[in-house]
Structure formats: C-alpha cells, structure tokens
Amino acid sequence: MSKEIVEANMFGGFELSYNGKPFSIERNTVTKVNQLLQIIIYHSKGIERTKIIDYLFGDEDIADPSNSLRALVFRLRRGLPKVGLPEDEFIYIKRGVYSFSPTFEVECDATIFEAIAKQGFSATSMSEKIDLFDKAFNLYKGDFLPALSGTEWVVPIQVRLRKLFFQVSNELCKYYEEQEDYKNLLRISEKCSELYPYDEWQSYQMKALIELGRTKEAMKLYEKTELLMFRELGVSVSPAMAAQLDKLGGQMVNNTDAISTVKHNLETTKEDIEGAFYCTYPVFIESYRYIKRVIRRSGQAAWLMLCTITDGKGFALDDSDRLNKLSDELSEAIRVSARGGDMYARYSNNQYVVLLLGINQEDCSLVQDRINDNMSKESRKRYIQYHIAPVNLASAGTDRDTDELQDIVRGAE
User: Fold this and answer.
1) Closest listed residue to residue 72, CA positions, set 52, 88, 100
2) Which of 2, 95, 113, 122 sits most deeply, having the most CB atoms within 10 A of its CB?
3) Both 14 and 77 in a single domain?
4) Following DSSP, what letter does each residue of 13-77 receive, concatenated?
5) CA–CA separation, 38 vs 98, rounded Å?
6) Which of 223, 253, 283 is the last residue of a domain?
7) Is residue 223 situated within a structural domain?
C-alpha cells in the first residue's frame, strides 16, 4: 500500500501540499506551530526534544518550555486533520526524539536538493555529475525559509545550502562554458544573478549573451550591474565582467553592420540634446576625468553642484513615494535648467551631482534659481539643498583627479 505524500517546499518561502493539494496550518509561516512542523519535516530522521526546545524558545523567558512544546504538539496534531489530512498522531515521539508519522512519505525540497547535490560531487562520470547538478539546481528557488532569516536554527542551514548551491552552479557554469553551450550557461547564470545579484554571476551571464550575439542585452546588463555595484556596495564590477566588456567592444568593432546602421545607432535626436546630459554615476566619474583633461588646456572654469532633497528642515528625506516623486521632478528640473554641454547623474536616492562648464560662482546661483523655478510648485524649492565646489583642473590626469567630486558628495552626507 502506497503511503500518503506530504510535500514541503522551503526554498524561497514555505509551502505545503498533501497528495498534490496545497494546505497551510496557520497563515503566518513563522508561528511556533509552523516552525515546529518545519523543524520536524526538515530533520526527517528525527530530532531530540532538547534541540527543538532550544530552536523554538532559545533565550525566551518561559517558565516551562517542555509544557509549551507539548501544547504546540497538541495544536499541530489537532490542526492537520482540519486542513484535509487523515486522522493520525502526525508527531511521533520515542525516547525523547520527535519525528513525522511513518504513515506519510515526506518530501522536502531542501533535503532532496542536498542529497542530489552530494551525489553529484560523488559521481564518477561527467554526464551523471552534470545531470545530478542540473536536478539539484532546478530545485533551488532561493534562500532556505527566508521569512526566518536571522533565526538561530535556520541560519546555519541557510548558509550551508546557499554555499552548496553556489558550488553546484559554479560547476555547471564552468562545464557549459567549456562545452560552449551558451544557452545553458545563460540559463544557469541568469537564475543565479536574479537570486544573488551581488555575487558576480553576471560575468557568466554577460559572456553567454555576447556569444549568443545578444550584444545589446549584454551592454544593458553591464550598465545595470555597474550601477547596482556602485550604488549598493560602492565598488566597481568584477575584473571578469570588465574583461567581458572589452570583448564586447571588440565584437562591436568587428561587426559587419553597414555604415548607415552604425551612424543611426550613434546619432542623437534633437530631443535628446536639449538640456543637460544625464548619465549614471559611474559613467559620470569617467566622463568627469576626461572632461577635466579637455578643458585644462583652455583654462575654462567649471563647477560641481550637489542637489540634495531634504524634508524641508535640512535633513535627508527618507525613502518613500514622496521622495521618488521629488527625485524624478528634480531630475527633470536639472535637465531643463542646465545647458546641453553640462552633465548630471543621480548619486543616491535623494542626491544629484551636476558638472557645470564655462561658468563662475555667481552663475551657479542662477542655475540654482532656474532649478527652483522649474520645480512644479514654489514651495518645492525649500526641499532642495545645494552645495557647490570649483573643479581643480590642475589635478587632471593624476590619481587625485576626482578629489573635489568625492569631497562634495561626502561632505553633504
């Protein structure tokens, strides 16, 4: 006689099903009752009562933890039949060890993933190894029980399984790269980049896009990753991804497009050149270095302006829909207030940095006035705070060529 099947998915969330039909004990997946069920399902070979008490209650000030555990077991046993499971004790207790009822076959994605991945590392043939790694990879949907991240019993499991996923994914990426199977390389790296965008999977993803001839997507990926790394971590993209950019440049140089197509791709429409030039902050830094070299010979004056959105009392405005609306409005006000030869970028959620060329300090005030005038309401201008600094042309081409830029953005933080 076949057993009844209870499935538990713990990657990227928590879902339960009985013979293919979803069910839940309590809507909130982090309650003590749900955690008890999660602990017992994950520890399929059984787990000691003392460990369960430690996992569930830790340092909580509870008069009788053993009695509290008995109460949770009672609630779980009473709750499962109410959601469609047949009558059973569900939680078996033998010599202080708790396990799920042997009446049921319990399938947990986390334990299956770990078992298959370990089989893959032990496999003797490459085809078997890759097949097992692929199966394990497909099971992983994100961190183990993410709603319980930071919980003492979840953290070590979460870390271990994430590390195992990284190992499996690396093996797959290396294999598909060696086999020049770029469709599968893209499949693996795309999912990894989505789940863990700060762990440099984009270099594999970019390589796959380039080799598949999807150069525009590769360029967009690079720009998106560059902005993400700088804004969130304050670092540049990995050397591996920078190398992919060089390769992309070479591929574009050797492209057989007709000159008319190239010209069309490079041309800027009239609408695009009206007002100041907007770019990402990493691009702003590189352009700033170049422009300093260009204008040093002419002795042309240049100023930096930092525009900060505040709460009207001089403090930075917190993340909110209001901030997003003001930020978009400020960006457009800067664009139409500065000239076509000026450039600006978003430095943070509430700040824009502007490079004003061929201008003196008094003219900077006029630009500020124009920005205020171009805000939708007169009252808006009290939310914008300005800082200005002269561009030091003498430092162009040296390792201190962005000092004044860094000073102005850090000084206003």
Assistant:
1) 52
2) 113
3) yes
4) S-EEEETTEEE-SSSSTTSHHHHHHHHHHHSTT-EEHHHHHHHHHTT---S-HHHHHHHHHHHHH
5) 12
6) 253
7) yes
Query: Is 264 a domain residue?
Result: no
Which parts of the chain have pLDDT scores under 50? 253-259, 261-262, 268-271
User: Are 181 and 59 found together in one domain?
Assistant: no
Largest CA distance in the chain: 90
Give the global pTM.
0.65
- 204 assigned to some structural domain: yes
Tokens 């999660």, located at residue: 38
Residues 338 and 402 in one domain: yes
Separation of CA 259 from chain center: 39
| CATH, residue 288 | 3.30.70.270
What is the DSSP code (8-state) at residue 3?
P
Per the structure, the complete domain to which residue 94 belongs is given by 4-109
Strand partners, 43: none
Name, in order, each residue with C-beta under 8 angstroms of 243's C-beta and a sequence gap of 6 or more: 203
Structural domains in the chain (count): 3
What CA–CA distances, in Å, run from 378 to 302, 311, 362? 28, 15, 22
Residues listed for the chain? 413
Convert the pLDDT of each residue in 68-125 to its tens digit.
999 999 999 999 988 888 888 889 999 889 999 888 899 999 999 999 999 999 999 9
187 and 97, same structural domain? no
CA 380 → CA 170, 223, 309, 361, distances in Å? Answer: 51, 32, 10, 23
Domain's final residue, options 74, 109, 144: 109
Whether 374 is covered by a domain: the verdict is yes
Q: Which residue spans within 76-140 are E strands per DSSP?
A: 91-94, 97-100, 104-108
